Amino acid sequence: MANCGQCCLRLASGAIILLVACLIGILVSLGSTEAAWQLGSVEEVWNDLAGLDLSAYFVALLIGILTTLPALFCNRGHSEKEAPLEPDSTGKANPGVEVPKAPAPPAPAPKPKPKPKPLSPRSQAKELVGSRMSPEQAQKAAEKILSLRSYVERTDPINLDEMWAFFDMPAPTSSRSMDPSDPIMQTLKGKLNRQRLLFHPDKNGHPEAEKTFKFLEVCHQKLMRAYTRQGESVHQRTRREEEELKKEQERRQKQEEERRAQMALIEKEEEERVRRAERQQQRLEAMLQAKQSAFEAKCNNSQILPRTCSNELPVTGIFANTCVLSKSLVGRQEDAEEPTAAIGRLKVCLQRARDLPVPEYFLSGFNFAEVRVGEQSFQSPKVAGENPVWDCSFSYDVHRVDTVLKVSIFREGWFQDNFLGKLEIPFLDIEEWSGHPIGRLLEPEDDVGDSCMLLELCASFEWF
Asked: Which among 43, 254, 284, 314 has most CB atoms closer than 10 A?
């Protein structure tokens, strides 16, 4: 593409130079005087050109061709190399002209590397351990190597009490005649196994790891030989067996004393239970006798009085002489008014309910109880949950017509309360369990399902 553009440029410049040369030749043949340019009209000029000598025209044409040939076939590369074109002021290179590249700037001198910070001995040891273990294990192994380095390089013997610290264990205060299956010796063996995992050459790359582990193995062997019964004499074995027998006897004696104390406690609780049952039986018998006495006295006071004229009611008719109704036949006036009078007071402490059904979606889950004696009714506070705890007390006036205590459990709903179950306790049962907790099962609204709801309360009578 660059060579084609150069050729086209050369042809265009040659044509322009040829045209200019022709014009110059024509002007030369015509003459350069002013009279040749001051003609009357175009026709006169044309006539002058027609009568012009053609030899002069061809001479001018030859001069023009000779002047254009060097421009067409001359190689302009030499001049361009000698005098390279300056780029435009806009910074764009001239088309078809190769602009020489600027020399590359010299590379900057490399900065001196900062000196690495000195590492602590612990960090150096951790790096030497390598990355085959977890960071916690590597840290522990490095600390153990640094702490044992002074002992590994020692030549004088080491105290046995100091060797226990190598395995992170306190020196035992007991005698050195321990059994190999003793918990202390088993713990020592486990500590050695953990150290073996820390200093194994496949995981620990520290150059002192193997030496440190061999040192720990030697210490372990010395401790096992010194604290086990491998080298005890007959006298030592006899004394040890006597001490063990004595300790076993003391242990058995202590167990026997504990067993006796436990049996005595059980017997005491059983006697207390029997004594409590006897007192309860005596109390019930006394209550029964009191009720019988009160009933007999009541029957004696309500006997039929003799017929008197003042108490007779007027009867008219044919039976007036034989049928006379007396007030003594229906009893006294006080007995007629007694059903409306209170004969005692009932105190009820409603404690809790258990195992109520799970609330449905449109129910709030708040439960309350309604306790009723005759026409008297009280309502407990509303408590949420399947095992509500109320701990509320009520008092009722007991009349002669009242014979039962009724308890109904409801669950609060959005539109109406949902009935869960009811319970009826006769006054005879309440009198028998007066002052003691009573637990009864609630009767659900329908017997479908295996629900087992329990109600706990405490009630007591106070008779006037």
From this structure: 284
**pTM (two decimals):** 0.31
Query: Side-chain half-sphere of 33: how many Cα atoms within 13 Å?
Result: 3
* The pLDDT value given to residue 396: 92
* Distant-in-sequence contacts of 356-360, Cβ < 8 A, 24+ apart: 356/386, 356/387, 356/388, 356/409, 356/411, 356/420, 356/453, 357/386, 357/420, 357/451, 357/453, 358/386, 359/411, 360/418
Residue 89: strand, helix, or coil: coil
Residue type, 460: S
User: How far, in Å, CA of 270 to CA of 274, rounded?
Assistant: 6
What is the spatial distance between Cα 446 and Cα 428, in angstroms, rounded to a whole number? 27
Amino acid 199 reads F
Distance of CA 402 to the CA centre of its chain: 58
What SS3 state is found at 407?
strand
- In the chain, the amino acid numbered 222 is K
Domain residue extents for the chain: 2-32+44-74, 121-226, 232-302+324-332, 341-463
pLDDT at 259 over 90: yes
Which uninterrupted H or E stretch holds 345? strand 344-354
pLDDT by residue (tens digit) across 147-182?
Answer: 888 888 877 777 888 888 888 888 887 666 677 778
pLDDT digits (tens, 9 = 90+) for 241-253: 899 899 999 999 9
CATH topology of domain 341-463: Immunoglobulin-like (2.60.40)
